[in-house]
RNA sequence: GGUCCUGUGGCCGAGUGGCUAGGCUGAGCUCUGCAAAAGCUCCUACUGCGGUUCGAAUCCGCACGGGACCUCCA
């Protein structure tokens, strides 16, 4: 372990030293997507942020169990535990079975996560796969006196719970303040308290996704799945629970209440929340209609996009902002990241060509320290990136014979750049080894050989034309001291 | 209305009570047949007004601007 990691805990609103419950092991639960439509870039940001966190914990040597669920049932359209769930609604629209909707968008989600080079979680449980666990948990909550049933629907009694536990602690709010923000109960409402939420919802005649329960046919409420599944795979109390900030006030607040009411203990030691992605200063969301899909981003096929951006350029763009800050999208910012990313990757490829000397002009050990210090300070990737650019500067300077490096330092620098850029930040070099690429490589060798002859005859007009023409096909030739180098641009 | 967060150079974005992050852009220089790349140098900011302090962009207050949550959303 490279010194002490600290994490900003939403519960206390301070940075705390990270001490896992079980030495050397970390349990992480992150609220995954509700798979009733394509994930947009804002959703991706959250999962990419937690991918960084997961990767760094692994890098530090922790044995991590990373659980990220798939919500495939119980997430209602309306705000008052009424109506059909999102899958059934979408299923009707697309004339499919609800589980066809789930399958379609789950596969799509996985494809996008792979594009962004995120590591798969250790366990990816689904709500429909854990109906029994949810029912058992609800039974326990009722037995403990924190929930009640009315006509086949089970509600959590928030006001009763609040008498013993601070219901609004995660958002630092008092119950009275929360009550002020809610509407009066209408005559149709069955629940007792305005803040009460459903644990189990009675099925109607037309409900498509329903299961038998002690309270009749129905389906689980949205919040109970995360309590049940985190409990099952990580235990009654685990280390880190994460999710987007928008889940903090309702979903996570209710999760804490459910788990506490069931197990008589707080479920989570460190709560982590990632901030939103914004477009022109406004949060990207499904309902605001200002979101675009990862596919559109990669191809540039969207009115807001001037061009396409590669998945790694986008990932790097996100790594230049701290996970707790809002990240505002713009073409200009993305293009800046694209260039910076290319420079960083190019420098890493240069490492293998460096010559070593008897002394180093730069302090590589200090650089290593700076990298760990950045990440240990609540996963501060932007500061890490700044240090990595310092590394790139050193590499390029040594390559230009303007600085020197010892063999020992070079080995350390190489290890440092590789482990932080590829393992921790999760970036990868975007080159493929397809047969077409190999053919291009061969062709370029032939072309450069011919151009060498032309240049030897000092026919610069011809050699420059060759270079310019290839450039029109996105192939750059650079005439360095050590001979020509070529590359393909995006 | 309630509860919070936030306001940094041309753009994006870190950050600490005093020691000028970083990326992109622009200008100049070095290198080079030229170009590109790379390195170096320069443009040295912290919404406004008060207060605390030897000293504040960093702490406090007020004002103005932006945003989030309180209703489904990562």
Q: Write out the CATH superfamily name of the largest domain.
A: HUPs
The CATH class label of the largest domain is Alpha Beta
Estimate the global geometry from the Cα principal axes: elongated
CATH architecture type of the largest domain: 3-Layer(aba) Sandwich
Average residue-wise pLDDT: 89
> What is the end-to-end distance?
38 Å
Helicity range: 40-55%
| Main β-sheet, spatial strand arrangement | 4-3-9-10
Q: State the secondary-structure class.
A: alpha/beta
* Unreliable parts: 77-81
Q: How many discrete domains?
A: 3
Radius of gyration: 27 Å
Content of β-strand: 5-15%
Write down how many β-strands occur, each being a DSSP E stretch of 2 or more residues. 15
Question: How would you characterize the largest beta sheet?
Answer: 4 strands, parallel
CATH topology name of the largest domain, in short, is Rossmann fold
* DSSP helical segment count: 16
A few lines on this structure:
This protein has 490 residues and is an alpha/beta fold. The chain has 16 helices and 15 strands.
What would you say this structure looks like, in words?
- By secondary structure, the chain is of the alpha/beta class.
- The chain has 3 domains: 6-274, Rossmann fold; 278-424, Isoleucyl-tRNA Synthetase, Domain 1 (Orthogonal Bundle), CATH 1.10.730; 435-488, no CATH class.
- The protein contains 16 helices and 15 strands.
- It has helices at 41-59, 86-94, 98-115, 131-143, 158-164, 175-180, 224-234, 248-263, 294-299, 311-319, 331-350, 364-376, 381-399, 407-424, 435-456, 460-472; strands spanning 6-9, 14-17, 25-30, 63-68, 147-150, 153-156, 197-202, 218-220, 238-244, 268-274, 277-279, 282-283, 327-329, 475-480, 483-488.
- Strands 4-3-9-10 form a 4-stranded parallel beta sheet, sandwiched between helices. A 4-stranded antiparallel beta sheet has the order 5-6-7-8, with helices on one face.
- α4 crosses α7 and α11 (331-350) packs across α13.
- The longest helix is centred in the C-terminal third of the chain and has 22 residues, at 435-456.
- It is elongated, with a radius of gyration of 27 Å.
- The chain starts with 5 loop residues before the first strand and ends with a strand.
- It binds one RNA strand of 74 nucleotides through α1, α6, α8, β12 and α11.
